[in-house]
TrEMBL record:
Catalytic activity: ATP + protein L-histidine = ADP + protein N-phospho-L-histidine
Domain Histidine kinase span(s) in chain numbering: 247-446
Full protein name: histidine kinase
Family annotation (InterPro entries): HATPase_C_sf, HATPase_dom, His_kinase_dom, Sig_transdc_His_kin-like_C, TCS_sensor_his_kinase
SUPFAM superfamilies tied to this protein: ATPase domain of HSP90 chaperone/DNA topoisomerase II/histidine kinase
GO MF term list: kinase activity
Transmembrane segment boundaries: 171-191
Protein species of origin: Rhodovulum iodosum
Cell location: Membrane
Pfam families: HATPase_c
Keyword annotations of the record: Kinase, Membrane, Phosphoprotein, Transferase, Transmembrane, Transmembrane helix
Enzyme Commission no: 2.7.13.3
Source superkingdom: Bacteria
PANTHER family according to UniProt: SENSOR HISTIDINE KINASE TRCS, SENSOR HISTIDINE KINASE YKOH
Length: 452
C-alpha cells in the first residue's frame, strides 16, 4: 500500500482534530445552555412560589386556601406543565393542573425558609423540576408550618436545549469547514520550503547547482547542511576514485606496451604466430581496460546539464570522414539543433563513436544518422547499407567480444551499451534492408525536471 504523503497526513489529522474539537465544543455549549435555562427556570419557579405563599389565606370555614391563583394559565390547565402544591394541617392543596395527582415530595426536613430542588415524577409520568420551601404562616393565619412546592415539566427544558443544539449545528459545520480549509492553507504554506528543496535537488541532479544552500527556513537548514556535507564527501570520493582509475590505467598501459614490444621482437625473429597471439591478447586486455574505465567515468562522473547531440555527432562525423573507411561513405545527418541529452558530451561521444565507426566499416556506400525526441527520451539511429547480420545473431552481437567480422575485438557495441545503460538509456540493434540499424536512447535534458 502506498504511504500517505506528509501533506495528506497533516491535512487528515487537522480535519479530524478540528471536527472533534467543534463537536465537543458544541456539546459543551449545549450543556452550558441547558444549565443556564435550568437556572432561569428555577428563578421563575422561585418567583411563582413567592406568589403562591403570598396568596395563602383562611377561608370562611377556617381552612387554608389560595386567595389568588398565579397568573400563568398553565396552572389552570390540566397537565398544563406548571404545578403548585401545599401541604399543611394534614391537608394537601394543589393546582388544577395537577387534577387528582399529588406530587410525592421526599421526606426531608427543611429549615424555616429553606429551599430544596428536586426532580420528581409528574402526573403524566414526565420528569418535573421542582422547588420546595418550608414556611411558617403569620400569627393571623394561625402560625401553621407548611411545605409549598412549585414544579414545571422538564421536557420543556430538554426541548429548549435540543432547539439550541439544532440551531447551533449549521454554524458549527461552517466553522469546522472554515478551520479545515485554513489548516490546509497553513499546511501548504508551511510545506512550501520542501518544494523548494525538491527543486534544488533536481538542479543538483541536472548539474545546474552543486549544493542545496542554507537560505532555507531554520527548521530545514540542518537537513540541507547534512545533504550538502554528503554531496561534498561524495565529490571527494569520486575525485579519489577517478585518480585511482587514472593510476590504474597508467600502470596497465606500461605492461601492455611492453607486451606489444615483445610481440614486435618475436615478429622480427620470424615468430609471427606467437607475435599475433600476444598482440591479440594485449589488444583485448587494452580494450577491456578502456571499457571498464569508460563505465567507471560515466557511473561516478558528475553529469553536465546537457549534451548538444548535433554538435557531438557533427564532431564525430568529421573525425570518421578522415579515416580510410569513412572517406568513401556518403554521410547523411538529420539531427536538429537544440536536441539536448541529459549526459556528458564525452560520454555520448564514446557511445556514438563506437556505433558510427562500426557503420563506417561495414557500409557499402551510405551511412544515415538521425535524431528525434520521443517524450522524455531522445532516440539516435545509426544505419548503414552494408551486408547486415541475420536476425538470430542480433542478441549475440551485444555480448562481450562478439563481432561480425575478423577485425577488432568486438567490444565497441558492448561499451556503447554499458554507457547507454549508465546514462539511463539503452542500445538496440535491428536488421535493416539493407544493412544494420543501431538505436541509442538517452534521457532528454529537460526530463530531469519532471523526475520525482
Amino acid at each position: 500500500m502506498r504511504r500517505l504523503s506528509l501533506r495528506l497526513r497533516l491535512a487528515l489529522a487537522g480535519a479530524v482534530t478540528v471536527t472533534l474539537a467543534i463537536l465537543l465544543s458544541s456539546l459543551g455549549l449545549a450543556a452550558l445552555f441547558g444549565a443556564h435555562v435550568e437556572r432561569r427556570a428555577l428563578a421563575e419557579l422561585s418567583v411563582q412560589l413567592d406568589q403562591v405563599l403570598a396568596s395563602i389565606e383562611r377561608g370562611p370555614e377556617g381552612q387554608l386556601m389560595l386567595a389568588t391563583a398565579p397568573a400563568d394559565p398553565r396552572f389552570r390547565q390540566v397537565y398544563g406543565g406548571l404545578y403548585w402544591q401545599i401541604a399543611a394541617e394534614e391537608r394537601v392543596l394543589r393546582s388544577r393542573s395537577l387534577w387528582d395527582y399529588e406530587i410525592p415530595l421526599p421526606a426531608d426536613s427543611l429549615a424555616d425558609g429553606a429551599e430544596h430542588v428536586h426532580t420528581l415524577p409528574g402526573p403524566a409520568a414526565q420528569p418535573l423540576l421542582l422547588i420546595e420551601r418550608s414556611a411558617t404562616l403569620p400569627r393571623r393565619l394561625g402560625g401553621t408550618r407548611l411545605r409549598a412546592a412549585v414544579a414545571m415539566d422538564r421536557t420543556e427544558l430538554a426541548a429548549a436545549r435540543a432547539d439550541f443544539l439544532r440551531d447551533l449545528t449549521p454554524y458549527s459545520i461552517l466553522l469546522a469547514v472554515s478551520l479545515i480549509l485554513a489548516g490546509w492553507a497553513q499546511i501548504a504554506v508551511g510545506l512550501r520550503p520542501l518544494g523548494a528543496i525538491r527543486a534544488r535537488v533536481v538542479d543538483i541532479r541536472s548539474g545546474r547547482a552543486k549544493r542545496l544552500g542554507l537560505d532555507l527556513p531554520s527548521e530545514v537548514q540542518p537537513l540541507a547542511g547534512e545533504v550538502d556535507d554528503l554531496l561534498a564527501a561524495r565529490e571527494e570520493e569520486v575525485a579519489r576514485a577517478r585518480t585511482r582509475a587514472g593510476d590504474l590505467a597508467h600502470l596497465l598501459k606500461t605492461p601492455l606496451q611492453a607486451l606489444m614490444g615483445e610481440a614486435g621482437r618475436l615478429r622480427a625473429q620470424e615468430q609471427a604466430a606467437a607475435a599475433d597471439a600476444i598482440e591479440e591478447i594485449a589488444g583485448t586486455m587494452r580494450r577491456q581496460v578502456d571499457r571498464e574505465l569508460a563505465r567507471t567515468r560515466v557511473a561516478m562522473g558528475a553529469r553536465q546539464p546537457a549534451a548538444d547531440l548535433a554538435q557531438v555527432i557533427g564532431g564525430l562525423v568529421r573525425v570518421v570522414r578522415r579515416t580510410q573507411d569513412g572517406e568513401r561513405r556518403d554521410w547523411q545527418v538529420d539531427v536538429s539543433d537544440g536536441l539536448l541529452a541529459a549526459a556528458d558530451a564525452a560520454d555520448v561521444a564514446d557511445a556514438l563513436g563506437a556505433l558510427i565507426e562500426n557503420a563506417a566499416r561495414h557500409a557499402q556506400a551510405r551511412v544515415l544518422i538521425a535524431g528525434r525526441r520521443l517524450g522524455p527520451l531522445i532516440e539516435i539511429t545509426v544505419r548503414d547499407d552494408g551486408p547486415g547480420i541475420p536476425p538470430e545473431r542480433v542478441e549475440a552481437m551485444m555480448a562481450r567480444g562478439a563481432r561480425a567480422d575478423t577485425q577488432g575485438t568486438g567490444l565497441g557495441l558492448a561499451i556503447a551499451s554499458d554507457i547507454a545503460e549508465a546514462l539511463g538509456g539503452a542500445l538496440e540493434l535491428r536488421p535493416a534492408t539493407p544493412g544494420l540499424e543501431a538505436r541509442l536512447t538517452l534521457p532528454a535534458a529537460d526530463s530531469l525536471l519532471t523526475d520525482r
